[in-house]
Amino acid sequence: MTLKLDRIFYPRPRRLQAVVAASSLALLAAQPPATAAADELRGTGDLGVVIERASGRVAVVDTSAREVLERIEGLGDLSHASVKFARDGRFAFIFGRDGGLSRVDLLSGEITHRIIQSGNSIGGAISQDGSLVAVANYEPGGVRVFDSQTLEPVAEFPALYEDKNGEEQRSRVVGLVDAPGNRFVYSLFDAGEIRVADMNREPGAAPPENGKAAFDVTRFTDIGKKPYDALIGPDGRYYIAGLFGEDGLAMLDLWHPEDGVKRILPDYGRGEARLPVYKMPHLEGWTMAGRQAFFPAVGRHEVLVADTADWSLADRIAVHGQPIFVMSRPDKRQLWVNFAHPDNDVVQVIDTEKREVVATLSPGEAVLHMEFSPKGEQVWVSARDSNRVTVYDTRTLEEIARLESESPSGIFFTHRAHRIGL
């Protein structure tokens, strides 16, 4: 079912100091530059960051030299933190679990801006034109949007819905991504909805009399129970939400939103005993190779293969444990898969043509994330409890470097700045 909301009005951006005075947002003092890494002229295309969650800091890394350049501290609670990059590849936006949003200069090592924008957040997105950064929040449930240069607030979309008793509630928001057309798409875990926020304004339009800017939000209700995460394909057409409360996945075709949300892989898991879920998989790592799309199965020792012609289940690939990330090498020939506890000391490599596991590697204890270099000749793997990041040659599958890192989790390279949904 598709509903169109009335236009929603939000205050236009004002100077940050005035906004803070008028709201509960807490602006934290910008930190002084950590180092003078920008002394020499250089690009940022081979830079990235590694989240060091236990210390509330990130390590800025050089993927060509395979070394840590510097560390930036003072970023708050970085458990489950994620990162997006400005389109110039110089600035990184760090989304902390404590509601913190930080803008970091990779060249100077400076935190240029930092705010606490909610009590509990779960990632974010950068708009297609690079001007806006959005944050998905658990507490209070909703999406908040900020100017990417100043972190001044631009809009807020409360995730309001009516529960079964007819009472208004706010849902936790998950699966926030950017989409073509300068839109943000996200899912409401508690309400079972997908919503699309159109961040375009009428060219030259004068603001309403009360000095507020307007954005439209479209609701897609009854998509399924408990969407826990979502992804958008590399071309920005399909938005797919994983469902924890029932079988299958919910798919929205953004080329034809008027068709509503459809259920895909509806028979996946049907009639089978559910296994304990040790950690929810992340759908960011989906991949498409030709007509094949690969997904981590919830609570099962399987990677699912869907035929994108009709989104039917084409195959199941047995793997070592419950998959968390299923990530593709940029040429789509390999999938690298990590797993939930207690099998999280292993990474497996799948040949997408043969649909079979071709290697099992042991990068360390508690493998949390993987990231490919822009053209995929190497992959970096974080092992939290071994306090290291291991770099593999993806052709030979041999270890080629090892970096010491305190409790590393997410790894994010700047080439994500130019990919939809990343």
UniProtKB/TrEMBL annotation:
Keyword field contains Signal: yes
SUPFAM superfamilies: C-terminal (heme d1) domain of cytochrome cd1-nitrite reductase
InterPro entries: Cyt_cd1_C_sf, Haem_d1_sf, Host-pathogen_enzymatic-act
Record key words, sorted: Signal
Pfam family, one: Cytochrom_D1
PANTHER family: DIHYDRO-HEME D1 DEHYDROGENASE, PROTEIN NIRF
Name the UniProt record assigns to this protein: Cytochrome D1 domain-containing protein
Organism: Halomonas piscis
